Amino acid sequence: MLIEKRGRQLELQRVDTSAGKLPAFDVMYATRLPYLRNSLVQRHGSEILFVGSGGIFEYAERESAGRNLHRELQVLLRKPGKTRLRRYGNSSKPVYKLKQAVKRLLGHKSENLYDLDAWTVYASQ
Fold this sequence. Notes:
By secondary structure, the protein is α+β, with helices and mostly antiparallel strands. It has one domain. Helices cover 33% and strands 16% of the residues. The protein has six helices and four strands; from the N terminus they run βββααβαααα. It has a two-stranded antiparallel ribbon with strand order 1-2. Strand 1 and strand 2 form a beta hairpin. The radius of gyration is 16 Å and the shape is globular.
């Protein structure tokens, strides 16, 4: 299934992967159907998708991992009616980015367990 998100607008499309050709994407996420089902119907079902070994993220470009696009997926793959996760905590995006930059300058490591770029090992390193 392809989920295309532009601002607040979502579009869902079925994707035929049998030919081996995939559409262009920013992030692709693969998981097991029971995990996805539990995420959409159980109160804390989405936690297995994003903590531990619930799935595999594949980014089209390394720089995209630093944008934490998977946080958008967390919001989409939750049981309806739950409170939304805030991508930047209680701050605006610019304030969040400024805080992160200051922390890096002070030598603090990322405390965000959902920051893929902070704990991902890249083959090119």
